[in-house]
Write a structure and sequence with these properties.
alpha/beta; eight-stranded mixed β-sheet; 12 helices; 13% strand
C-alpha cells in the first residue's frame, strides 16, 4: 500500500460520529480499508458493517476497526457502500431514515447511477459515485470519481484523497464513466487474460510453467512501469522494441493478422454497452 499519503483531511475529523464507515466487507471493501489505514487513518475513526458476523469479527481482529449496526454507520461523515449492485437499494433504504444531512454517501457498485442513488436517499443528500478497480488490493488502483449535484467540494476532495491512498483517482462526468469502466474497471481482466495466453504460449515453446509465469509477470510489471514513468506514448515505446524485419515485428504482424487490435476495440465496446445496460 502507498505510504505517507493522508486520505483524511482535518475537516472530516472530530465529533462523536465516526469519520468513515465501510458497508460491505468483501475483498474490495477490505482492500480499501487496509489502504486507508496504511495511509494514515486511525482504526478508531473507521467502522464497518457486514451482514456476515464472522467476517466482521475477522476484520476487527485483523485491522482494529469496529463493527457496528447500519444505524450507527449512518451517522458517519463519509459512508462507503461497497456491496453488490443488487444489494445497494436495500442498504440505502436502511440508511435513509437516520442518515445525517452532512454525510456523503459513496457508492462503488457498478451500474448504479447517481439518479438511482438519489432516489433511495433524502433529497439534497451528498452523493458520490466511484468506479475503482482490483489493483487497489496492492495500492495501485485507478478510480473514477463522479460527484453528485449536492456533494460539496470538501466532500469531493475527501473522496478523491481516499482513493488516491490506494492508487490514483480521476474526477470525471458520469457520461464518461462507462468508458472508464471499460478501460480501468475491467481493464485488469484484459491484461490478466493476455498474460494467461502468453504463459500458455511459453509452455507450448518448452518452458516450464513457473519459468513462463515469472517471465511474463515481470515483463508485464516492467512494461507497466515504463508506461507510467516514460514521457513517450505507448505507440512510441512499442516502436522502440520493434526492429524492422525483426522478431518483434514478426510477432506483431501475426497479432494484426489475427485481428487483435480490432478485438480489443470490440471488447471495450461490449463492456461499455453492458455497463449502460446495467445502469438501465
Amino acid at each position: 500500500m502507498r505510504q505517507g499519503v493522508s486520505s483524511a483531511p482535518p475537516e472530516v475529523r472530530g465529533g462523536d460520529a465516526p469519520a468513515l464507515a465501510v458497508i460491505g466487507a468483501g475483498a474490495m471493501g477490505e482492500a480499501l480499508l487496509a489502504g486507508w489505514l496504511a495511509s494514515g487513518w486511525s482504526s478508531a475513526d473507521i467502522v464497518i458493517v457486514d451482514a456476515h458476523g464472522p467476517r466482521v469479527e475477522e476484520l476487527e481482529q485483523r485491522h482494529g476497526v469496529r463493527g457496528v449496526a447500519l444505524e450507527e454507520a449512518a451517522a458517519s461523515h463519509t459512508i462507503v457502500v461497497a456491496v453488490k449492485p443488487h444489494q445497494v437499494a436495500d442498504v440505502l433504504a436502511a440508511l435513509a431514515p437516520t442518515l445525517e444531512s452532512s454525510s456523503v454517501v459513496v457508492c462503488i457498485a457498478a451500474g448504479v447511477t447517481l439518479a438511482h442513488l438519489a432516489r433511495g436517499l433524502p433529497t439534497g443528500q451528498g452523493i458520490i459515485r466511484v468506479m475503482p478497480n482490483t489493483p487497489a488490493l496492492v495500492g495501485e488502483g485507478m478510480a473514477g470519481v463522479v460527484p453528485g449535484e449536492h456533494a460539496t467540494a470538501v466532500q469531493r476532495d475527501v473522496v478523491v484523497s481516499l482513493f488516491t491512498a490506494v492508487g490514483k483517482a480521476m474526477v470525471v462526468d458520469e457520461s464518461s464513466l462507462d468508458a472508464l469502466t471499460a478501460l480501468s474497471g475491467s481493464g485488469p481482466a484484459y491484461l490478466f487474460y493476455i498474460a494467461e495466453a502468453m504463459i500458455e504460449a511459453g509452455v507450448h515453446q518448452g518452458l516450464t510453467r513457473p519459468q513462463a509465469t515469472e517471465l511474463v509477470n515481470q515483463t508485464v510489471r516492467g512494461a507497466g512501469v515504463m508506461l507510467e514513468s516514460s514521457p513517450e506514448s505507448a505507440s512510441v515505446l512499442r516502436e522502440r522494441v520493434t526492429s524492422p524485419a525483426g522478431t518483434t515485428a514478426a510477432a506483431l504482424r501475426s497479432l494484426d493478422d489475427h485481428g487483435v487490435r480490432a478485438a480489443m476495440l470490440a471488447a471495450v465496446d461490449a463492456c461499455v454497452a453492458r455497463s449502460r445496460e446495467m445502469a438501465g
